[in-house]
């Protein structure tokens, strides 16, 4: 077996957001079997120089700072007739690195994480190609278009159509296309016409050692009362829409029964729209924190009120691993192998979210039982080793050939 070339749209360390978490653990798994070369983008200068045990174990690495503005990417997309998702991540440096790496090393497999990076698969590459789409991104943009109006609706409709065509083209080229859940995989099979021999589900896992409630000290708020929290990257549109909806539509009903309840929004880069929620309807905007586990440990209820969601929500799995009662929207619960009412609570509307949260706040023992059941489920079936058990085989790697250095 030769080397692996791993392409991903973000630096896969530290594993502190959904896409980086999945890429990080897959990369670490592959490094156990073969030398891996990595090409990726950095969102800021810090990421280009940040050290990591994973980074030092790579055969070679190319990290390119992404500086292209959304406006520039949009103009390039219109001129070139490509999706914005591709022009945003277009780089001559990455393209040269891919070409040089394939010429210099014996690359048997290219593993592509996220559709934006599939544009770097050389047309003449004869080795194995594994495409991890994670989610059906084109369907997300179609949802944005259906819910929007005006110029942005046109932009999102164009993106959904063009990205969908590109996804199908890439999947036909790849040996396997991977998705985070059976629901996403089945949706793509329907859209692409490909069968389950080429389109497979490889679910997300949880770092069970890290998300151990016994290893965290709960954050303390100055004001008492029940604490409801939401975690996530707060410049990501689905997360923004989720917290705005929960704060304005759900919290007023909760406050009628629990007037001292607080809703904490915990996550990096809150936008101006998110920041304006601070102080309204018991909402507190926390922003970035050093250790998310401290907030999860302190929470009475964790909510995931996403109105648009694709694939598996890591935020839900993390809260469940910490033994917390979770109230999730129907969209956020998709793909999670858990039972409504036993492992978590699923709510079909903002009104039902308020009802479920209030019931749990009024019955702490039921909330504790729900959290205990959730933690047991995650520890039984959601370890990364369990979830990635087949990844080496899909890449053409044999178990006996595992590198000694990774043992």
Automatic annotation (TrEMBL):
Entry-linked InterPro entries: Sugar_tfrase_PEP-CTERM_Stp1
Origin species: Parasphingorhabdus litoris
One Pfam short name: Glyco_trans_1_4
Name of the protein described by the UniProt record: TIGR03087 family PEP-CTERM/XrtA system glycosyltransferase
CDD domains on file: GT4_PimA-like
């Amino acid at each position: 077996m030769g080397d692996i070339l791993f392409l991903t749209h973000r630096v896969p360390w530290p594993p502190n957001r959904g896409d980086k978490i999945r890429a990080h653990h897959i990369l670490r798994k592959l490094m156990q079997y073969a030398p891996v070369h990595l090409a990726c983008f950095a969102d800021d200068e810090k990421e280009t120089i940040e050290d990591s045990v994973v980074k030092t174990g790579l055969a070679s690495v190319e990290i390119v700072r992404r500086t292209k503005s959304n406006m520039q990417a949009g103009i390039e997309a219109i001129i070139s007739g490509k999706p914005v998702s591709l022009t945003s991540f277009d780089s001559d440096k990455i393209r040269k690195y891919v070409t040089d790496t394939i010429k210099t090393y014996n690359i048997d497999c290219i593993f592509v994480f996220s559709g934006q990076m599939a544009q770097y698969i050389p047309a003449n590459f004869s080795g194995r190609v594994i495409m991890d789409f994670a989610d059906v991104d084109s369907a997300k943009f179609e949802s944005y278009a259906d819910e929007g109006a005006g110029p942005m609706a046109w932009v999102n409709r164009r993106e959904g159509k063009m990205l969908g065509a590109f996804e199908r083209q890439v999947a036909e080229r790849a040996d396997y296309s991977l998705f985070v859940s059976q629901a996403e995989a089945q949706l793509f099979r329907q859209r692409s016409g490909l069968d389950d021999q080429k389109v497979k589900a490889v679910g997300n896992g949880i770092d069970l050692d890290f998300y151990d409630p016994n290893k965290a000290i709960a954050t303390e708020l100055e004001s008492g009362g029940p604490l409801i929290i939401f975690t996530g990257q707060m410049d990501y549109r689905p997360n923004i829409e989720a917290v705005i909806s929960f704060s304005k539509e759900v919290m007023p009903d909760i406050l009628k029964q629990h007037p001292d309840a607080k809703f904490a929004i915990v996550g990096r880069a809150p936008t101006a729209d998110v920041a304006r929620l601070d102080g309204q309807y018991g909402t507190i905007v926390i922003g970035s924190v050093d250790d998310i586990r401290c907030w999860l440990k302190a929470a009475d209820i964790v909510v995931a009120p996403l109105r648009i969601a694709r694939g598996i929500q890591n935020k839900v799995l993390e809260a469940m691993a910490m033994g917390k009662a979770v109230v999730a929207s129907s969209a956020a619960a998709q793909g999670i192998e858990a039972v409504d009412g036993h492992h978590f609570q699923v709510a079909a509307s903002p009104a039902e979210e308020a009802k479920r949260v209030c019931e749990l706040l009024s019955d702490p023992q039921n909330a504790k039982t729900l959290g205990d059941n959730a933690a047991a489920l995650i520890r039984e079936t959601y370890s990364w080793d369990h979830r990635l058990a087949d990844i080496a085989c899909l890449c053409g790697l044999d178990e006996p050939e595992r590198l000694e250095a990774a043992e």
